[in-house]
Amino acid sequence: MNNFHDFLHAISAAALDTLVGFDRQAALDAGVDPSRAKAWAELHDVYFGTTNSPQKQRLAGEKARRHGFSLDQLALLERRLRPIKHARTRMKLRLALLDAKCTYKKLSELANKLIPKTPPEPPRKQVSFTRSRQGYRTMRVTADERDLADLEHALRADLDSTKPIAQQMLERFLELMRGDGTGVPKAVPRPLLLIPLPEWIKVLRDEGDDTVLGLSDGTTITGAEYLNRHHATVENGLEAALFHPEEGPVNLYRDQRFANQKQRDLARATLTMCPVPDCRQSADSCEIHHIRAWKHGGETNLNNLAPLCRYHNRVNDDDPERARRGRIENVSGTPVWHSPRGYRATNTHHPYGAMQTLFG
Question: Where is the HNH nuclease domain (predicted)?
Fold first, then answer.
């Protein structure tokens, strides 16, 4: 390729044949935009993949070459054809559109005329929250228009027109939410003292509700004894959790001990957020996930538990041999997301989990 005209020929007249032997991973490794690589993969399936109509597939390819369709134009057609459910109808419309020799803009206009419009899906009734940014969050509410019209009417009643309306509506909304003390209760944060165990202490075993620690002098001590001797007493009502730099959460000590709740508390102390990158769900809103699935022999032990939001708990790949959406692994005592492509990534939003806080 010696000049710009050669480049244009490669992406137009000879564009389709450049997808022979297409390798999506190779495209990604070469720095191609992932959305573009996905579109090229779809084109490869349409024009070179297995089909029930090889003759029409061949005819579509001939038309695309003859009229010099660019990869962007072909990708445009597939995006517009995607809502069409029946393969035969899609192919019929594809062949009709491939008869047109025109610019990208004209092709888009023609597609709008030929491809029937699908009615938009009605919005789902729901409430959603964004992650925190500089101490603020945004709430979005989608509900029946009459209900929200009533709410807006209440928020706008008797506002001062000389001041910003939106801020006054927020103040009125918070008044309605809190009421006279009988409204929405305030979430009370639960402080938990995180105590790192020195590396010279080895976690030996669980013994009843406690954990036995092995010391470098050849003696043993329980976790409760360690806390009472070096950090706190039971009488002062302190709630404290022990974390080992390699094995993670060790045990949780309080006046009343309930194993299931104790495991949940420690799992949520280990990570304050769902571990999937960019997820905004806090540990308090998460479900407790078995890293090694129960059906595969995973036990309900601390080193096999992680807080996952409802969505990621359901799409997690329980079978590591069939990874499609990614899965959670325990890495040195910390649950970490493992991508289908083989790399590990952490959720850097609100990075105040116990293992990160204590051991970095």
Answer: 262-314
